């Protein structure tokens, strides 16, 4: 019986180091697939001695992949475990490996952005900037070293965690654990995408539905505003009471305002669902992006948006 092939700590460290450059060959069609494939090369060379097997392995890792660059580490760890089990004879096909990657990358992307970009980095940046403003050289050094130490430690330890968990997943394929994890991750990913639609997708229809002349007192009469500080104070007080509608004599209502009163974010949701449907129909992401640009420019020229 042939000796079982095992990825050493040195092999996994090499993968983790390369994984820092996940976005190095980012593209609009398959996004981080090039960086992912580059990261996993040391493991593929160790696991598959046959040249054809190495080529086949790298080909399956050139499929679409995109997530937060740091929380991608546990996905890599699970993938390493699956590849290791496959190299040792386990019945793990290309679809199973790709399914795990796709199933995990969505939910983890939703976690990585708020934790790293919106919490940790601003906190470290504010701390470093406050020291730098006082003329202390420690400020920028603190940000640089703290950020990179945390980032690199997170990538390594979460990759190791994924690797250990991935071995359990591979051993329980017959029990349906992989399918349950993939299904659960997909559901969570769709939930997160749905929650982020309103934040990341913006559509505004500009056609005017109605124009109504407001009654006296419902708007700021600029002719009666005094000059100087007293006039500015009066205008600000009126604005705080009347709101944006008080800036003009006429109240203008756009199509978008009416839509927002019915179902806020409906147009953004429909556009997102349309893009998902086109992707399911195997329409190239490049075609979708170009089409969105074209529609947006035409709608702007026609004063629809």
Mean pLDDT: 80
Beta content comes to under 5%
End-to-end separation in angstroms reads 68 Å
Rg, Cα atoms, Å: 27 Å
Helix % is 55-70%
Q: How would you describe this structure to a colleague?
A:
The chain folds into 3 domains: 9-200, no CATH class; 202-208 and 253-305, no CATH class; 215-248, no CATH class. Helices cover 67% and strands 4% of the residues. The chain has 305 residues and is mainly alpha-helical. The chain has a two-stranded antiparallel ribbon with strand order 1-2. The radius of gyration is 27 Å and the shape is extended. It holds the Pfam family EIID-AGA. One of its GO terms (biological process) is phosphoenolpyruvate-dependent sugar phosphotransferase system.
Question: Nutshell version of this structure?
Answer:
One of its GO terms (biological process) is phosphoenolpyruvate-dependent sugar phosphotransferase system. The protein is mainly alpha-helical and 305 residues long.
């Amino acid at each position: 019986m042939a000796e079982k092939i095992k990825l050493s700590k040195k092999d996994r460290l090499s993968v983790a180091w390369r994984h820092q450059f996940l976005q190095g060959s980012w593209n609009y069609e398959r996004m981080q697939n090039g960086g992912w494939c580059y990261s996993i090369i040391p493991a593929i060379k160790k696991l598959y001695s046959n040249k054809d097997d190495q080529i086949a392995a790298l080909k399956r890792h050139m499929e679409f992949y995109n997530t937060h660059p740091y929380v991608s580490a546990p996905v890599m760890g699970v993938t390493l475990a699956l590849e290791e089990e496959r190299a040792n004879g386990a019945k793990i096909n290309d679809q199973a490996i790709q399914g795990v990657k796709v199933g995990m990358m969505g939910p983890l992307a939703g976690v990585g952005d708020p934790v790293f970009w919106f919490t940790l980095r601003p906190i470290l940046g504010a701390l470093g900037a406050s020291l730098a403003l006082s003329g202390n050289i420690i400020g920028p050094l603190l940000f640089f070293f703290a950020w990179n130490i945390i980032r690199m430690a997170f990538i390594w330890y979460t990759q190791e965690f994924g690797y250990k968990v991935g071995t359990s997943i591979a051993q329980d394929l017959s029990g349906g654990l992989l399918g349950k994890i993939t299904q659960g991750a997909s559901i969570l990913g769709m939930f997160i995408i749905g929650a982020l639609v309103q934040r990341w997708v913006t559509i505004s229809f500009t056609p005017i539905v109605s124009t109504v002349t407001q009654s006296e007192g419902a708007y700021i009469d600029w002719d009666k505003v005094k000059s100087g500080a007293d006039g500015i104070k009066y205008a600000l007080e009126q604005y705080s009471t009347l709101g944006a509608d008080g800036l003009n004599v006429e109240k203008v209502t756009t199509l978008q305002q009416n839509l927002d009163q019915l179902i806020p974010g409906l147009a953004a949701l429909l556009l997102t669902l349309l893009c998902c449907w086109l992707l399911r129909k195997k329409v190239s992401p490049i075609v979708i992006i170009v089409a969105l640009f074209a529609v947006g420019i035409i709608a702007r020229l026609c004063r629809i948006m």
